[in-house]
Write a structure and sequence with these properties.
Blueprint (H helix, E strand, L loop, with lengths): L6 H11 L4 H30 L6 H75 L5 H23 L2 E3 L12 E8 L8 E6 L2 E3 L2 E4 L1 E7 L5 H16 L1
Parallel strand pairs: 2-6
Antiparallel strand pairs: 1-4, 3-6, 4-5
Keywords: Chaperone, Coiled coil, Cytoplasm, Stress response
GO cellular component, one term: cytoplasm
Subunit structure: Homodimer.
């Protein structure tokens, strides 16, 4: 008799080799569900731990964040206000420094001017001596050269201090720099022109130390004598 095949063993072997059997599918499904449950549980635990962080809820944390944002905004506004105030104070200080420096320069110029005006009288005396004294011999010429050397040294010192002599001859009369002492009727010079400087004027930078005393030209036809002669001749002509 021939041996019968073991069908149960074959069935068991085939059953183990089937990957998608109902039992294996059930096992995999249970494992998947278990993993999902574990994941959800972990997330819940994590969320619960986060919500209890520092004993604060999400609403409390959001409120704290809003408070900090508001404080930051207030501090930023305060810093901006301090910056504007600093810029304003810096501008005011710069203007004060410039104004003080200008006032100091003006005061120094004023004091220097008062001192130099007193020295100008000495310069005038030297210039008069130079034009009026005529040395007659070698001894007088030596004396003349000596005091003219002193005069030159004095003039050079005034130039270094910023003093400049005026030279108004031929220029239009300007009351800012000139003071009219005489009028001369002339056809050779335009009306209002300075003919001669009687006493020299000086400036210190833009400041007038002393006005120049000048002789000013006037039109010759405006002479008072000419007016009187014309007035006396007119009736005689009319009578003729």
């Amino acid at each position: 008799m021939s041996a019968e095949p073991n069908t149960s063993a074959i069935f068991d072997e085939n059953q183990e080799s089937l990957p998608n059997s109902p039992e294996s599918l059930a096992t995999e499904s249970e494992a998947s569900v278990t993993d999902e449950v574990k994941t959800v549980t972990d997330q819940a635990a994590s969320s619960e731990g986060f919500s209890l962080l520092g004993g604060m809820t999400m609403d409390a944390l959001q409120e704290e964040i809003d408070t900090l944002k508001q404080q930051l905004e207030e501090q930023t506004q305060q810093v901006d206000a301090y910056k504007k105030r600093y810029i304003s104070l810096a501008a005011e200080f710069d203007n004060f420094r410039k104004r003080t420096s200008k006032e100091k320069e003006e005061l120094e110029t004023k004091i220097k001017g008062k001192t130099l005006v007193e020295i100008l009288g000495v310069v005038d005396n030297f210039e008069r001596a130079r034009t009026q004294i005529k040395p007659a011999n070698d001894g007088e010429m030596g004396i003349h050269k000596s005091y003219q050397g002193v005069y030159k040294t004095l003039v050079d010192s005034l130039k270094r201090l910023g003093v400049s002599p005026m030279r108004p001859e031929g220029q239009p009369f300007d009351p800012t720099y000139h003071e009219a002492m005489m009028r001369e009727y002339s056809d050779e010079h335009p009306e209002g022109a300075v003919i001669e400087q009687l006493v020299r004027g000086y400036t210190l930078g833009e400041q007038v130390l002393r006005h120049a005393l000048v002789k000013v030209a006037a039109p010759k036809g405006a002479e008072p004598n000419a007016d009187r002669s014309e007035a006396t001749s007119t009736p005689s002509q009319q009578s003729v």
